[in-house]
TrEMBL record:
GO terms for molecular function: gap junction channel activity. This is Innexin. GO terms for biological process: monoatomic ion transmembrane transport. Structural component of the gap junctions. Keywords: Cell junction, Cell membrane, Gap junction, Ion channel, Ion transport, Membrane, Transmembrane, Transmembrane helix, Transport. Belongs to the pannexin family. It is a multi-pass membrane protein. It comes from Dinoponera quadriceps (South American ant). The keyword Ion transport applies. It is found in: Cell junction, Gap junction; Cell membrane. The chain crosses the membrane at residues 21-42, 110-127, 180-199, 269-296. It comes from the Eukaryota. One of its GO terms (cellular component) is gap junction.
Amino acid sequence: MLDIFRGLKSLIKISHIHTDSAVFRLHYSLTVILLIAFSLIVTTRQYVGNPIDCIHSKDLPEDVLNTYCWIHSTYTITAAYRKREGSEVPFPGVDNSKAYPDSERKEYRYYQWVCFMLFLQAILFYTPRWLWKGWEGGKIHALMMDLDIGLCSEVEKKQKKKMLLDYLWENLRFHNWWAYRYYLCEVLALLNVVGQMFLMNRFFDGAFLTFGIDVLRFLESDQEDRVDPMIYVFPRMTKCTFYKYGVSGEVERHDAVCILPLNVVNEKIYVFLWFWFLFLGVLSFFTVLYRILIIFSPRTRVYLLRMRFRLVRRDAVETIVRRSKVGDWFLLYMLGENLDTVIYRDVMHELANKLASRHHHGVPGVKGELQEA
């Protein structure tokens, strides 16, 4: 299993250049790695054994019956889940199907698609990152010019700082569309994790939205009085009906009991994913609220820059925020996450001085209103 995660680590490389938030990185890094790892695990017999093993009569080839029941799905009897295991039924949900109407049957068609669904989920989680990577266009990396290490010569450092300052000066107030596209990607990440909860609910016939809560309730209650939700959604023993022609040409019915060892892994995976998606959804929701507050509150932008980059003077931060837009703030914040702290402080102070100087000379088009977004 460790070999799987080592391979995934080389597949998804996390750049040391930060162009997004930590919560956004959880979507396309850790979550994608987990989903791909889970997808590989459920397809590896080394960890789960055969995906299905059916008990059959001697006149049926084992491989034929197993393949048929794997492809055409199996079923349980819902009324048999409340019967006593070991005395009334051999396993919860397994009973004589002829004694119940067809409406009591619960069919399971999903288990052969779990690995594909997990891989599809990984692609969906990476999609907002793919969009932002294209829209960001390497702007942060280009503006850094290796100023993140701060070990270059003073002449080179001075030249690069001047180039960065010139770019910020000439393009000030023109980064809103660039920043809003990133904010859109964060909204898409939130919609994705919420949408995947409903997608999984549809995939598991309406049993996923409350799956985690049902598991917690079952663990805390008297288990003899309740149906184990993990066994109900991911049964370990099911039934399968196979029809074939007999020696006289008549259609013969064969009922088989099938063991699904793969579901022991599936139930653990989806219990974890339920809580992980909930955690990720809550974080993403507050992140979107945080972005809305940033857009409409310049004072919040001042506070965040001051709290994150304490070497920059307060008056410099206030000057820059007053005379720029939210897109410029986002670019400056991302540069601060990547540049050497001393170099970033110098650039911010020089930019604030130039803005203050232009304001004092009365250049039109620049207003010193803190309330301006």
